[in-house]
Write a structure and sequence with these properties.
The structure holds 2 protein chains of 2 kinds.
Chain A: H1 6-11, H2 20-48, H3 52-60, H4 62-90, H5 94-123
Helix pairs in contact in A: 2-4, 4-5
Chain B: H1 19-50, H2 52-63, H3 65-92, H4 99-128
Helix pairs in contact in B: 1-2, 1-3, 2-3, 3-4
The chains are: A mainly alpha, B mainly alpha.
Amino acid sequence: MKLRHPIARARGLGSAQGGVEHWWAQRWNSVVLMLLTPWFLWFVFSALGASQAEVRAMLAQPWHAALMLVFVGMLFWHTMLGLQVVIEDYVHAPWMEWTLHLLNRLACLVAGLLSVVAIGRIVFGL
Amino acid sequence: MASPDRPLSPHLQVYRWQWTMSLSILHRATGIALSLGALGLVWWLLALAGGEDGYARFMECARSPLGLVVAAGFGACLVYHFWNGIRHLLWDTGWGLDIPTAFRTGMAVIVLTVLGTGLFVAALLMKGAA
């Protein structure tokens, strides 16, 4: 017996009106992070033995700067989605849950933007 | 949103503990830990953009005994989350969901994490502590 309207079935969103976007976003940025992590570790360990000026010059190169921008973007997106699920699973008091959702989004957004600004300063020599 | 007085469906307590459950919980735990580690990355980038003094202060913290222990800890979390994340992505394609394969891939994750963490710590001590 089908009680749902045909258009609702065609949209396939269920009663929550959403859900798959979160899942797909988390898969895509997992794959990107998986591909970039070896480069990231190589970069960090190369930087460990170098001076501030040398590391800055290395990160100012277009390829490294671009990869680092993608890395931090995907990293904080991935972090936001992951912590969101943790909050949804374990925090049940509504005021606390929504406060934590807000803080999570805000913190990941600010952390990501701070990283982008820092990389921008390095690339443009500011 | 759960109302607190509602009866809950049975979950964790009705299952016999299996070692693969620890891997699942560890994936989440390392993910939460790495959220904090990501803030360390922001600190590093800001220090790098800021100038020599700030960078020297950052490196002083990172190279202190406590800094190295924290870095090794984040390294271990990253290595585990990386390998077990690949395991999760394989599951998402529908591969490896049967119990024998899940046990084998779980063992592989443990071995690769030990090896990867060893490599990470060795590189850290060689380049970081110098």
